[in-house]
């Protein structure tokens, strides 16, 4: 950690935190996401080389998906992230989501949640995942994930905060198995319709090593598939992050379902691991970003009042997509996000192994 940062006064830390929160709202979610992905990977690499072995796990690098509800960042990360995001704004960061039409405020009927049948449902999903075709990714190949996404978020202009959103749009991502090569096309993130590289090393010459919240396929292939051991690892490596240990564990697994390609045995094990997290529920009626109806495995974040839902086909138990729904009332500016608001929704359209970046199945 930078010595100057470690000696910050409480007032200075509060100011940095406020700056990060404010600038994150002003940037469109996708654009903030892209810069945060690159930035947090750099911070993670620095902390791995400078922090003692007993230091807390690094903040989520968010390699794989669009933003979730706000998390707590370490002071170093918050300070640097605030500076970078502020620089993006002052240097012409697109405040409207360049290339994406403004979307409506997304809403839904809040489905009833129940703890009844959770283990049985996750067991069926795990068995279906084990039976599915799941080719290995070889060196030189790429994981391709195509999805449709939309979001609703708080937007502040001239000290006035309103709800805004990005309309449903296509998102394409390619990643090499070692995580050092990649490409992203998402008009909510990229200024160019051609997309932007995710390849490493970055502009500063850093090549961060993969870890649990910034994994590569090769990294995932080395993880344990024992549910108890895997859950223990998740709790240990995400300690101090998110709004609670259980919610962060649920979110960590959810990240791997969206824009990742866990090896077959691990993919099946993830669902058996999720069954061990307290507070997991079933929502019988959930809809993904393209309108496909299914059953959801979900968990309510008691701090944010938002429920994260993983949506599966009712018959085949194939993962369809996910969404985040505001369930409880908020206070302050966040009160604009009323119960029933869908802050994020996605649908996986295609997941495949291809032989080159920008190649589609």
Textual characterization of the structure:
By secondary structure, the chain is an alpha+beta fold. The chain has helices at 3-6, 10-26, 29-50, 75-90, 118-131, 217-221, 227-237, 245-258, 264-274, and strands at residues 113-114, 142-157, 160-175, 182-185, 196-197, 281-287, 293-301, 306-312, 319-326, 342-354. A ten-stranded antiparallel β-sheet has the order 1-6-7-8-9-10-2-3-4-5. It is globular and about 50 Å long. The model is unreliable at 1-96 (pLDDT under 50).
Task: Summarize this structure briefly.
This protein is α+β, with helices and mostly antiparallel strands.
> What is the general shape?
globular
- Taking the alpha carbons of the first and last residues, their distance comes to 44 Å
Strand content: 15-25%
For the sheet with most strands, the description reads: 10 strands, antiparallel
Structural class: alpha+beta
Strand neighbour order, sheet with most strands: 1-6-7-8-9-10-2-3-4-5
State the order of secondary-structure elements, H for helix, E for strand. HHHHEHEEEEHHHHEEEEE
Helix content: 25-40%
Counting H and I runs of at least 4 residues, what is the number of helices? 9
User: What are the low-pLDDT stretches, counting only 5+ consecutive residues below 50?
Assistant: 1-96
Radius of gyration over C-alpha positions, nearest whole angstrom: 19 Å
Average pLDDT metric: 79
Question: What is the element layout, followed by pairings?
Answer:
Blueprint: H1 3-6, H2 10-26, H3 29-50, H4 75-90, E1 113-114, H5 118-131, E2 142-157, E3 160-175, E4 182-185, E5 196-197, H6 217-221, H7 227-237, H8 245-258, H9 264-274, E6 281-287, E7 293-301, E8 306-312, E9 319-326, E10 342-354
Antiparallel strand pairs: 1-6, 2-3, 2-10, 3-4, 4-5, 6-7, 7-8, 8-9, 9-10
Helix pairs in contact: 2-4, 3-4, 5-9, 7-9, 8-9
